[in-house]
Write a structure and sequence with these properties.
Layout: E1 9-11, H1 14-25, E2 30-32, E3 39-43, H2 47-57, E4 66-68, H3 72-76, H4 83-92, E5 97-102, E6 119-123, H5 128-137, E7 141-142, H6 157-164, E8 170-173, E9 184-187, E10 194-197, H7 203-210, E11 215-216, E12 243-244, E13 254-258, E14 269-271, H8 278-292, E15 299-302, H9 310-322
Parallel strand pairs: 1-8, 2-8, 4-6, 5-9, 10-11, 12-15, 13-14, 13-15
Antiparallel strand pairs: 2-3, 3-7, 4-7, 5-6, 9-10
Helix pairs in contact: 1-5, 2-8, 8-9
The structure holds threonylcarbamoyladenylate and magnesium ion (MG).
């Protein structure tokens, strides 16, 4: 006989939004409605919670995630907002627009939401449930679409339950999403704004408001939907020092990026996870790569990481880091 699993779908009333906010503060995942699609939310300042998002989605690589905040001023705490960014935010937030902007130097967001890069994608959702959740959780929420990697984005709580039901503490049911397609993603990192993903807000609208040309990224599409080769549009974080994989030990001058309980001695060393926990390793990956990427070392020797679960995404990123420039 099959076991009856209680549904994790709850009405989006104050009681349940409050419970969801508490779960998020404890590092658990909650699916929440936005006006575009349902998000898979986790505390964007908590590396372990962000690692759990990648794990739940079953993604074979770390692509950066959108961070949801409650307001423009909340966004300004994490990113350097140019005049263009402020103009777009004032017009389209809250709403279906995501801005890719530079992280502030003192940014408290997990590096994993940025896949190690110096930029972050920020959005203020308009859905009242998302707004209430952000206010009660009192933290920014990383929130990719709440589907398994490669599947269609969910627009009802039932879709989320079918795909990710056992991966989340709660699914807040805010009814079907009004817009139903993901937000427009625009990068403001270069002099000319670049549309990375089309959505409800068009490039023409953005160009009109800013009074200048908007570049349309080639092969535009959602990375996740496979329409776009990751790395074509995203410049991935890569250390300056050479990276050597499958290392047994560090050579003189090298720093060691270790994994697991049995570690050879090294002068400069970080351990992704002394217990061999892949979620912990993912949470530490980008911060540790940066820490070891020092001018006084000749290279980074990386011990093997198993190719299971999040290890697949970790190895994908280590392979990229090791690939010649
Ligand atoms: O409507 C939406 O945007 C939904 C709802 C839940 O807010 N979220 C969503 O998130 O679709 P996600 O993580 O599935 O899509 C994020 C998109 C990806 O195409 C990703 O490559 C891009 O934004 N992105 C995120 N951070 C980026 C960055 N730092 N640089 C360039 N692209 C970035
Ligand atoms: Mg998605």
């Amino acid at each position: 006989m099959s076991k009856i699993v209680p549904s994790r779908i709850f009405p989006a009333d104050l009681q349940h939004i409050t419970a969801a906010a508490k779960a998020l503060q404890q590092g658990l995942l909650v699916s929440f409605p936005t006006e575009t699609v349902y998000g898979l939310g986790g505390d964007a300042t908590n590396d372990r919670a962000v690692a759990a998002i990648y794990e739940a989605k079953g993604r074979p690589s770390f692509n950066p995630l959108i961070v949801h905040v409650g307001s423009l001023s909340a966004a300004a705490a994490f990113a350097d907002l140019s005049p263009d960014a402020v103009t777009l935010a004032r017009k389209f937030w809250p709403g279906p627009l995501t801005l890719v902007v530079p992280r502030r130097r003192d940014c408290r967001l997990s590096l994993l939401v940025s896949a190690g890069m110096d930029s972050v994608a920020l959005r203020v959702p308009a859905h009242p449930t998302a707004q209430a959740l952000l206010m009660l959780a009192e933290r920014p929420l990383a929130g990719p679409s709440a589907n398994q990697s490669g599947r269609i984005s969910p627009t009802t709580a039932q879709h989320v339950e079918e795909g990710l039901g056992d991966k989340v503490a709660m699914i807040l049911d805010g009814g079907p999403c009004r817009i139903g397609v993901e937000s427009t993603v625009i990068s403001l990192l270069d002099a000319t704004p670049t549309l990375l993903r089309p959505g409800g807000i068009s490039a023409e609208e953005i160009a009109g408001l800013l009074g200048r040309r908007v570049e349309i990224a080639p092969a535009v599409g959602d990375i996740e939907a496979g329409l776009q080769g990751p790395g074509r549009l995203l410049s991935h974080y890569a250390p300056d020092r050479p990276v050597r994989l499958n290392a047994v030990s560090a050579a003189p001058g090298e720093a060691l990026l270790a994994f697991g309980p049995e570690v050879p001695p090294a002068k400069v060393m970080c351990n992704l996870s002394a217990t061999g926990d892949l979620n912990e390793a993912a949470a530490n990956l980008f911060a540790m790569l940066r820490e070891l990427d020092r001018p006084d070392i000749s290279g980074i020797a990386v011990m093997p990481v198993p190719m299971t679960g999040l290890g697949i995404a970790i190895n994908d990123r280590l392979n990229r880091a090791a690939a010649p420039g």
